[in-house]
Design a protein that fits this description.
The protein contains eleven helices and five strands, in the order αββαααβββααααααα. The protein is α+β, with helices and mostly antiparallel strands and 287 residues long. It folds into two domains: 99 residues, Beta-Lactamase (2-Layer Sandwich); 110 residues, no CATH class.
Length: 287
Amino acid sequence: MAKKSCKGNLTKALAELQVSENRYKELIEISSDVVWETDAQLRLTYSSPKTREVLGFEPKEVLGKRPTSFLSTEEVHLVRSIADKMAPFYKVITVNHHKNGRKVILESSGQPYYDKKGKFAGYRGVHRDVTKRTQAEDILRATEAKLREQNISLEMKNIALAEVMKQFEAEKNRLTEHIAVNVRELIMPIFQKIKMHGYSSKYLDLLQKTIEKMTSSLGYRITKQDLKLSPKEIEICNMIQSGLSNKEIASLLKISRQTVEKHRKNIRKKVGLVHKNENLTSYLQQL
């Protein structure tokens, strides 16, 4: 009776073991990873059906081979150094060769196992195909690097643009000041003369010429150089620069030619042309 009971228990245990093995086998077969096992010499004794999809080999084709058989040459030393330690490893990235020659990037983890006597018997582990993920990460890194370069370039352009805008604003302010000074020092006196003395074609011609050279630097430079020219002298400078003769200036200003000559001498002295063989008209036209 006891023998019959023992036999029944053994049969039941074997059946349960078979169910467990079948369950384990089914899980391995549907796994997205390659499940593998080696012997103590690191020769493959098992490789799951996923081997066919990941590396292009039938599982039976890889049995008896070492995992280094599929590695790029430069990575063989890496795997050997890990195996020599007989220690667990986790998520080690290697580049492997597919049967068709293309590169496959695997993320491998493994655990050593031992026989009943505690002697190293080999490794069991998994390979995960991370080729697409790695390529996506490479693209992402390249994109990030490109974006960083573009950001740096954009920052440099913004700095350059800010400097250009600063110079533009300075030039705009300078031009505005030029025009304001010219209007105040050169044009307004002419309007005053027209208002006081009535219509004069010469004044209108002078006004036209002065307006045409509104952006010139004459009024601005004369006032900014601290030459201490009087309003009358500035007015005469404008007329001289416009090409009017002493007689014409005297007629427009209702003063004598001698007075004009006196003003010219004072102007030459103030602008530093005394004892210099330089024409006052040419000097003013260069301003």
